[in-house]
Amino acid sequence: MRIVPCTRQHAPEILAIYNEAIANTTALWDYKPRTLAMMDAWFDAKERGGFPVIGAVDDAGALMGFGTYGTFRERPAYKYTVEHSLYVAVPYRRCGVGRGLLREIIAAATQQEYHVLVGGIAADNTVSIALHEQFGFTYAGTVKESGFKFGRWLDLVFYQLILKTPARPVDG
Q: Can you identify the CATH homologous superfamily of domain 2-162?
């Protein structure tokens, strides 16, 4: 497994991973599959925000999974906090791909001098919760019955990791 920056040429593979998660899991709380046009807009937003899209590829160059982060909330005082996400393609789950991606997300956020990484995770996603706890993320709260998918209410749990950066935070 190699960790690489994802570019727009990865959009079809990212789209396939997203759409599988939409159709079959509670990891993504969308109902309808995304389109390539939506992915183009997604990449535009990542570029505007200076947010990385990090991929894990196999020896043949196939995308095994990806991770990214973005704005947590729009207010300026949240400027040192980002919300991250990571998704792994079905054949590569439970093979260490998520671990590699989360490690790189933390490194990138540290390098960009963010202070807090937030993960919003479906409460029934015990694998993702365990992964985050392995990296030192701590439970930060639950928003009960905040989503409805597959005919049932879903609880959203938040996990956070406080980084030692930035060296000199400033107001404004």
A: Gcn5-related N-acetyltransferase (GNAT) (3.40.630.30)
